[in-house]
Amino acid sequence: MDHAQRSPAKPNRLIQEKSPYLLQHAYNPVDWYPWGKDAFEKANQEDKLVFLSIGYSTCHWCHVMAHESFEDAETAEMLNRWFVSIKVDREEYPDIDHIYMSAVMLMTGAGGWPLTVILTPDGRAVFGGTYFPPQRRGDLIGLQELLPAVAEAWKNRREELLSSAERLTTILKERLSTPHASGTLTIDPLHRAFNQAVAWFDSTYGGFGNAPKFPRGHELSFLLHYWLRTQTHQALELVTTTLDHLSQGGIHDHLGGGFHRYSTDAQWLVPHFEKMLYDQALLARAFLESYRVTQRQEYARVARGILDYVLRDLSDAAGAFYSAEDADSEGQEGKFYVWTPAEITELLGEKDAEWFNRYYGLTPEGNFEHGKSILHVTQPLEMFAKRNGLKARAFDERLAQNRVQLLAKRARRKRPHRDDKILTSWNGLMIASLAYGASTLHEPSYLIKARQAADFIWQHLQQDGLLLRRYREKEAAYPGTLEDYAFFGYGLLEVYESGYDVKYLVWAKRLVDVMIERFWDPQQEGFFLRDRTEPELIAPVKEFYDGATPSGNSMAIGLLLRLGRLRADPHLEDLGRRALESVVALVESEPFRYPQLLIDWDFALGPIREIVIVGDRDDSRTKEMIEVIDQRFLPRTVTVLRPTGSEAKELEGFAPYVQHQGPVNGQPTAYMCQGYVCTLPTTDPRILAERLDEGTSTRPDR
Question: Do 447 and 407 belong together in one domain?
């Protein structure tokens, strides 16, 4: 039965919401409430348990559970009779999601979305799980069996449920906020993380662990930092092997650019077709950094594909970026992306189609459902061309033309649902990667787009110095979390170091001041995820683990360390180091689970170099100096441009030390300091390059 047949004519109260996920449930027969005091007051007044369902709009199994259970009249009647039901978009409320995901993990040992939790009227968890069908399916209990059982327990065995909820809440408070043993920053966790990465590495296909495999860009970025520090070539091999297989696999959208969320198999062939903004940002960064290290053009090409995909398909007209695209279209996962050889032949003609199908692995049998094929590269292009007697360059150019033709054809298919809400945090990650891409690839248009997005966030999601989390349909809502301040602050620093407009430094400093005031834990160091001035949840959350995205603490610490060094502000750097030192024991247990935190760690260990370039940013000689920096991988270097004329005053207000650094003989000049010892200034870009390369290799062939 389709959605229209099962939905009541009258919408529920979710119709008033802006979240695409909540709106997907606005015509359920379930009497849904959004998160808020109204739902909990009703639960108290009517002495009912709360049925909490958490998901997001591009979640495949959320769609399945909605269709099977929440559109089912009998299941909805049970929920409406015995429970107060709440729907939460996890992307709008990461703190709520984190708490109740942690509760379910404690109860069941597993988690995921849709997340299903039954709560007491004061918000404590008594039962939890993930996906539930309406009726029992094998060992999986159905909602129509579960709901009356829990309602009966609330009526007749309430003390037992309350006692269990209290014990779980106590454990949650300990797990989510109790400090770990502090210690001294040493290089040892970096070595141990690398060894752990080697142990988990798939030497055949790249990546870490078993299927399903997630491509976490920040893991690869950490390994590049480790390679630069130690010159351990194996660390670079882990990165390049992974990127090579990622770029060739079906997880990579070879027509439209960008990457799907994860691979269901070890070889990166069959993805879960969802596309997330944060994955594009983090993987673009890893490819760009690897391009700076290796100068391999393939990495630049893939990075451009990611950035161009986001600008084409995930961009709001006003400049900011949407959150995600679904895996499903027309009721089938991946239908938008897959092909048959016959379709290719019809479009390209027999000659081109023969080579295209061979190169991208399309067969009559298919490698996906219904005889369809997922495009993937069967052999590296040079090898394929050589084995088939083709000229590689001409073949590559022909493939590029073919891809344009197929992309145009694909654009006429019914697209997957796009979640068009704008999240401050994820936009911060994307802004950073676009800015880094602009300087790495010498693509000014990327910097223009990064600035537009940053300006949009500042105009629409910042009020009186405070950030809001989500924007959609001209409505900004929900107090910003630590992730919003830290990720957006990081984006602002990258925009500055790509284009040197000091206003972005000033904005970043304002955000950091608020972040410290509202999220810093003065007792145990580090930052809470939720603004301390907001109403408390059942447990405070302080997260350091770097999951699909880096943790708020990892990004906040990096922001403090970098901004502190740019300003020569020891207070900011000291806070960052204290936060790192507070979790030394935590990180030492399994360090590779904290790759972004270890990037901060690497920065804090130093040596850190500060470069001040003095000159007009439009002067070709100044640009030569900047180019020397932009073509190198310099993660422990911060750069300031002191412009000439009246513009210098604004920068001096942010970083007073630059007022003592002027041009030599009227020429653009570079000052470089390390460990508070400065070299003589130089007006020669070649000398700057030599100094940057002294004592270390920024590329593997040096």
Answer: no
3-state helix, strand, coil in the chain (%, to 5): 50, 15, 35
Measured CA to CA in angstroms, residue 374 lies from 75, 339, 363, 638 at distances of: 37, 7, 10, 42
Task: Tell me, yes or no, whether 98 and 239 share the same domain.
Answer: no
Q: What is the pLDDT of residue 4?
A: 37
| Spatial separation of the C-alpha atoms in residues 641 and 566, rounded to whole Å | 11
Q: Are strands 49-55 and 32-34 parallel, antiparallel or unpaired?
A: unpaired
550-573: per-residue pLDDT in tens? 999 999 999 999 999 999 999 999
Question: Rounded to the nearest 5°, which phi and psi values hold at 296?
Answer: -80, 120
Decide: helix, strand or coil at residue 494: helix
3-state secondary structure of 345: helix
Q: How far apart are CA 118 and CA 154, in angstroms?
A: 11
- Of 490, 593, 596, 603, nearest to 550 by C-alpha is 596
229 and 101 in one domain?
Answer: no
186-213 confidence digits (pLDDT tens): 999 999 999 999 999 999 999 999 999 9
Specify the pTM: 0.96
State the residue range of the domain holding 615.
609-693
Please give the C-alpha separations between residue 382 and each of 246, 359, 390, 468, 678, in angstroms, as whole numbers. Answer: 17, 11, 9, 49, 46
| Alpha helices (H) along 83-182 | 94-108, 143-156, 158-177
Are 134 and 142 in contact by the 8 Å Cβ rule? The answer is yes
Q: Tell me if residue 698 falls in helix, strand or coil.
A: coil
Determine what percent of the chain is predicted with pLDDT higher than 90. 92
What is d(CA 60, CA 238) in angstroms, rounded to the nearest whole number? 31
**What per-residue string of b and e applies to 97-125 under the rule 16 or more CB within 10 Å gives b?**
bbbbbbbbebbeeebebbbbbbbbbebbb
The span from the CA of 293 to the CA of 276, in Å, is: 26
Separation between Cα atoms, residue 23 and residue 7, nearest integer Å: 13
Q: How far is CA 381 from CA 121, 239, 247, 345, 461, in A?
A: 61, 20, 12, 21, 45
* Sign of the C-alpha dihedral computed for residues 682, 686, 691 and 692 taken in this order: positive
In a domain, 701, yes or no: no
Distance between CA atoms of 449 and 444, rounded to whole angstroms?
9
